[in-house]
Design brief:
elongated, five-stranded mixed β-sheet, alpha/beta, Methyltransferase, Cobalt-precorrin-4 Transmethylase, Domain 2, about 20% strand, five-stranded parallel β-sheet, 3 domains, Cobalt-precorrin-4 Transmethylase, domain 1
């Protein structure tokens, strides 16, 4: 074995003046990497989304360290302190409650400001719910779009749902269990009940579950049961029906408007054009 290979097996101690972005388990604590564990044990400070969650890792692996909370409620106050600590020579690990920091959490703002200050950043990669759900879904995974949690404002939410309905790539979104059925109903409205999806919950835990099929089928499986655990949804991309381009859809929209102005209901006009053009009725609706 040459020196290069030998060096990869040496224990790597944290460097001074470095922010470590550390991926932590999304459920099963045994998924914590040896490298991540070494960093968490030996940095000067761990900035945690919730210190109670990080303490579970510390208890499991029997170590202690200095912790501060760093979350959406206090990030604006904590960022200057973290940068000062880094400039003073400390090494700091940033962790979220589960998975990779900076994905749907204020770690994104911290990383941006740390970079602006010329401070070194090293990522210790780890589990990610989005990728875990995607590769487990059986849906196309070479190209995908990640939306995280959808916005709550109606107009912005509708805009993204419309984008999802038109996207030819798989889309990954997060949702809380008590809002899942409502979101699935929205997806049905925009994408149609036959669009294939996969709902994953409790990833890497004992009760991990994957519920797949058309949106209508998934709603039937879930609507009368209690839903627990963090939810990740993968939505199959829209088929490029008949290779229609923007110009084709523009012409279809003109036909739709003409039919409605001629007296047909929107539903009847959309149904007629969907059959004529061999595309979904919901795509016709979205054009209007």
């Amino acid at each position: 074995m040459n020196n290069k290979n030998l060096s990869s097996h040496k224990k790597s101690e944290p460097e001074s003046n470095v922010l470590y972005i550390v991926g932590t388990p999304i459920g099963n604590l045994n998924d914590l990497s040896t490298r991540a564990l070494n960093i968490l044990k030996n940095v000067s400070l761990i900035a945690c989304e919730d210190t109670r969650q990080t303490k579970k890792i510390m208890a499991k692996f029997e170590f202690t360290n200095n912790l501060i909370s760093f979350n959406k409620h206090n990030s604006l106050k904590k960022i200057p302190r973290i940068i000062n600590d880094l400039n003073s020579g400390k090494s700091i690990a940033l962790v979220s409650d589960a998975g990779m920091p900076s994905i749907c959490d204020p770690g994104e703002d911290l990383v941006k400001d740390v970079k602006k200050n010329g401070i070194k950043i090293i990522c210790i990669p780890g589990p990610c719910a989005a990728i875990t759900a995607l590769v487990s879904s059986g849906l196309p995974s070479s190209k995908f779009t990640f939306e995280g949690f959808l916005p709550k404002k109606k107009l912005e939410r509708a805009r993204i749902l419309l984008e999802i309905s038109k996207n030819e790539k798989s889309t990954i979104i997060y949702e809380s269990p008590h809002r899942l059925i409502n979101l699935l109903s929205e997806l049905k409205k925009f994408c149609g009940g036959q669009r294939e999806i996969e709902v994953s919950r409790e990833l890497t835990k004992i009760f991990e579950e994957h519920i797949g099929g058309g949106i209508d089928d998934v709603i039937k499986k879930l609507e009368n049961r209690e839903i627990l655990g963090e939810i990740t949804i993968v939505i199959k991309g829209r088929k490029n029906s008949n290779n229609l381009n923007d110009n084709d859809f523009s012409k279809i929209k003109e036909e739709l408007i003409e039919l409605v102005e001629a007296g047909l209901s929107l539903s009847s006009a959309a149904k007629y054009l969907a059959k004529k053009k061999n595309i979904s009725k919901n795509q016709i609706y979205n054009l209007y």
